[in-house]
Design a protein that fits this description.
Elements: E1 3-10, H1 14-25, E2 31-33, E3 47-48, E4 58-59, H2 60-73, E5 77-79, E6 83-87, E7 93-97, E8 101-109, E9 113-115, H3 121-125, E10 131-132, H4 135-138, E11 146-150, H5 154-163, E12 169-173, H6 183-191, E13 195-198, E14 201-209, E15 214-222, E16 228-232, E17 235-238, E18 242-244, E19 275-277, H7 289-308
Parallel strand pairs: 1-2, 1-8, 2-5, 8-19, 10-17, 11-12, 11-17, 12-13
Antiparallel strand pairs: 3-4, 6-7, 7-8, 9-18, 14-15, 15-16
Helix pairs in contact: 1-2, 1-7, 5-6
Bound molecules: NADP nicotinamide-adenine-dinucleotide phosphate.
NADP nicotinamide-adenine-dinucleotide phosphate binds near residues 151, 156, 182 and 239.
């Protein structure tokens, strides 16, 4: 027999946990599936300085832990499980984890987004051996070594600045000659004496050696003049954006071309009544912890009204 819950929330980042706080306070006894990365992307970030209420900033993992404890205080239950199959064709909705079957009357999807990769074979080969998408997790391994960060957005600037704590030099590799990052983040990177820029450049290949596998350089191509050169680095960090974690619901919910779940109007309603989406899995524009938390609150209120109706 599947285990039935009135409300299931998938994902435990700011969106999922905020939904859990509101739903638990509405006595809906929400069960939160923590997913593949419990706490979400904030757990691999460093200091969060723009979440209201923390004058001096707070570390990402500490912030998600506070969200979780707050939700648990009102009775939300967290499961260290991941949903791998979903059937949203009828109510109650059916969900499957690696170990159990579940059903629920209302579902809140807050599965977030995951790091994007370049998709070249050599990147795959050296993943975990010098190629990383998590500066916080892996920066420490590159003490006094030259490294590269790929991307021109806020994530790339933030990672580059953070990595200067360890690295001897950080080169930001960006495919255009103009950065996408906000002015303040650009300034922070440009002012840092350890940071250099390789603009209008793309990585053609990650060059490395074996026994043990490690990265030695990035083969770069200048997209303007076609010239190629090797940039000697020990590590390459990807900061090129994210992909929404919506695959499980493919073909069942309306999504845009990039896989972001489409929500209706000002609500968190999806194309299936009773299924709500919040946070980065439905937001390709703002993608902030605070906007994710706000949409988590909306999803819980929308789901509560749906269940009452
Ligand atoms: P983003 O803004 O989408 O930037 C991704 C960057 O990667 C862009 O510069 C893009 O180049 C580049 N890129 C994408 N695919 C690529 C590929 N295949 N090869 C090479 N380069 C590629 O993503 P993000 O930096 O992760 O930021 C996401 C959101 O989070 C933004 O709203 C940002 O403001 C926010 N954020 C805020 C903070 C903060 O305030 N502290 C920190 C991190 C993130 P193009 O520019 O050419 O498209």
């Amino acid at each position: 027999m599947p285990k039935h819950h009135q409300m299931i929330i998938l994902g435990s980042g700011p969106a999922g946990s905020t939904a859990a706080i509101y739903a638990a306070r509405a006595d809906l006894k929400p069960v939160v599936f923590e997913g593949i990365q419990p706490g979400g992307q904030l757990t691999i970030t460093t200091e969060v300085e723009n979440f209201p209420g923390y004058v001096d900033g707070i570390m990402g993992p500490e912030l998600v832990d506070i969200f979780k404890r707050q939700a648990e205080r009102f009775g939300a239950e967290y499961l260290t499980e991941e949903i791998i199959e979903a059937d949203l064709s009828q109510r109650p909705f059916k969900l499957k984890s690696y170990t159990d079957d579940y059903t629920c009357d209302a579902l809140i999807i807050a599965t977030g987004a995951s790091a994007r990769w370049l998709g070249i074979p050599s990147e795959q080969k050296y993943m975990g051996h010098g190629v990383s998408a998590c500066a916080t997790c892996d920066g420490f391994f590159f003490k006094d070594k030259p490294i590269a960060v790929v991307g021109g957005g806020d994530s790339a600037m933030e990672e580059a600045v953070f990595l200067t704590k360890f690295a001897s030099k950080v080169t930001i590799i960006h495919r255009r000659d103009e950065l996408r990052a906000s002015k303040i983040m650009q300034e922070k990177a440009k002012e840092n004496p350890k940071i250099e820029f390789a603009l209008s450049c793309v990585i053609d290949e990650v060059i490395g050696a074996d026994d043990p596998p490690h990265v030695t350089a990035a083969k770069l191509k200048n997209v303007k003049d076609g010239s190629e050169f090797d940039l000697p680095v020990d590590g390459i960090f990807m900061g090129i954006g994210h992909i929404p974690n919506s695959k499980v619901f493919g073909g069942q919910l309306d999504m845009d071309n990039n896989g972001y779940i489409i929500t209706r109007g000002k609500s968190t309603s999806t194309s299936v009544p009773g299924v709500f989406a919040c946070g980065d899995v439905q937001d390709s524009v703002y993608r902030q912890a605070i906007s994710a938390a706000g949409s988590g609150c909306m999803a819980a209120i929308d789901a509560e009204r749906f269940l009452e109706g």
